[in-house]
Amino acid sequence: MWNVAKTADSTPRDDAIRLLARRDYSLQELTDRLTARGHGVNAVAEALQQLAEEGLQSDARFAECFLRDRLLRGHGPRKMLAELGQRGVDRELARQSLAELERDQAIDWAERAMDVLQRRFGSVAPNQIPPRERARHERFLAGRGFDFEQVRRAVQEWQRQE
């Protein structure tokens, strides 16, 4: 299913380290991948606990890297939190990580949403947009994970541009 080079004597720890050498993974992602490779659930849990104790696997570090990546891709906070939840990151940890990112980057989500609109629809004269097209832009931003208020502010600011 997933590309993890497994040799005949490969342990869950070995496979986990190979995965973590490429990028950070959440605990749930690693568990899923290792059990899919045929490792026993108990052996996987034991190996991952040891890796976490050694600082080689961390859901907090994974969340931080994941959020920074999604921010660069133009995703909003709602989608980011939902995707972290899908990857098994604790809800409170995800919220804390997002709050730290917002504080460190001084993020104005409405401004980010407007930037996403400009990148996607920049060639359109924003002050000439018909209501149907405006609704399309709003749905686009909502699908990217921005909340109602952020979408409303972004579309209004974008339309004010000349």
Automatic annotation (TrEMBL):
Its main location: cytoplasm. Pfam families: RecX_HTH1, RecX_HTH2, RecX_HTH3. GO terms for cellular component: cytoplasm. Transmembrane segments: none annotated. Residues 13-51 form the RecX first three-helical domain. The keyword Cytoplasm applies. Residues 58-98 form the RecX second three-helical domain. One of its GO terms (biological process) is regulation of DNA repair. InterPro entries: RecX_HTH_1st (IPR053926), RecX_HTH_2nd (IPR053924), RecX_HTH_3rd (IPR053925), Regulatory_RecX (IPR003783), WH-like_DNA-bd_sf (IPR036388). It is found in: Cytoplasm. Keywords: Cytoplasm. Residues 110-155 form the RecX third three-helical domain. Belongs to the RecX family. Modulates RecA activity. This is Regulatory protein RecX. It comes from Halomonas cupida.
